[in-house]
């Protein structure tokens, strides 16, 4: 089911990208609303949201809250991109998790130094939502991503926010898989939640070193739940 959704996302994203390249949607024009695109391509609203994020990450469109998506360029950016088949390549997924450890560890440390009360409130809300929906995978994945993005926002560095938002959304399927694995083991879901709480507590205490360590520990544990840790290169 999830693999099919990922395939649909890629298919629709490529079709819309082709339409943009051919001038069907000119630079400066708005894309049709999400519900119209969903009907046009026969997919769900969730797929269209992922398509929109993919096109935004490629530099083709810009999304504005409440005003839709505007075409920025007919050709996509040639910069950093996560492969579309990341969820089925264990080696590539391990490499991205290793990258996330460094990036999100640094983000957590910065968040501990720079967080405001509003930042803490956003993290706390995501944690509360996550705890409430631990046994509901569709919702818990969204709350998991929201928590990580709240930490990125608390760095008050827009480049951390943009890159980590991109990585987290691209790894949505992997997060869902990790949570499914956790639910198969009694008590594991609670343990995962406590990993998030440990990161939050360190950020709240303004302990940058602990925040970094807890974020890295959480992602290393997540990689282990996906059985990716054995693929990390051995240090010389």
UniProtKB/TrEMBL annotation:
Keywords: DNA-binding, Repressor, Transcription, Transcription regulation. The keyword Ion transport does not apply. Residues 6-74 form the HTH gntR-type domain. Gene3D superfamilies: GntR ligand-binding domain-like, Winged helix-like DNA-binding domain superfamily/Winged helix DNA-binding domain. SMART domains: FCD (SM00895), HTH_GNTR (SM00345). Pfam families: FCD (PF07729), GntR (PF00392). InterPro entries: GntR_C, TF_FadR/GntR_C, Tscrpt_reg_HTH_GntR, WH-like_DNA-bd_sf, WH_DNA-bd_sf. This is Pyruvate dehydrogenase complex repressor. It comes from Achromobacter deleyi. The gene is lutR_3.
